[in-house]
UniProtKB/TrEMBL annotation:
Belongs to the TBCB family. GO terms for cellular component: cell cortex; microtubule plus-end; nucleus. Pfam families: CAP_GLY, Ubiquitin_2. SMART domains: CAP_GLY. This is CAP-Gly domain-containing protein.
Amino acid sequence: MAFQPTPADISVIITSPSAKASSAEPGFVTERRVTPSWTVFQLKGKLETMTGVPPGSQRLRVKVPGRPEQWADGDDRIIGEWGLGKGSEIEVHDTRPRAMRPNFTDLSSVEKYELPSETYESLPNSVLAWKKNQKLGRFDPNALSPEEALRSHVEKDRAEVASRGIALSQRAIILPSSPPHLRRGTIRFVGPVPTIPVSGPGRELEQDGQLPAELQPIWVGIELDEPTGKNDGSVGGQRYFECLDKRGAFVKPEKIEVGDFPPLDDDLDELMEEI
């Protein structure tokens, strides 16, 4: 009897259509070696571990370079009959109705384990334990309380406003700025902005979503010369000054430099006169 060589495995790209009808990109892509002597059913059994689609619900579309695309129908047929070669692709289609397919990307119904606080606090090798040993954060005996920290920030803001000469109608730039990217404008507001959320320690002191007036940080509202801002002088539905949309910005006092910064239109006029 003549010797029959075993067909060599072929590297084939395995894909599946995207779950989103609007997407042209495949939802799954991998590359696997396929033995041409496998039956279609044998191949489907191996593809189940990659795609999660049961063999009975699979329909395979074979794409071979230089040939028309074909459906690999007939579970008992040999997959090599479709002329698999270099660069071939097998697209796995799920014939089940969408409602019958498990959604492995939706984690909303997955039960999640949450470590109880008392258990975490008792662990000897946690970040919390390290902070305790190093006396960092709230474990620092010299650390300020949240209220003291907020008062300190407010005092710093007021000192910056005074030392920098920040006042209404003054011309200013927002730091950091360097030519030609100077964000300049006119100061239109100086004071607390309760509708800007507070980050860091002290949030637990909020009442009805706001800090007490004496603990609210100071902000500087600027009407910018160019539309490089984020608002129109209002934040969170509360208006603090009037300006066009995208011309308003709120920054901390330490980010402000007051000076003789003429409006951009004036610079353009001077340049045209020189020309």
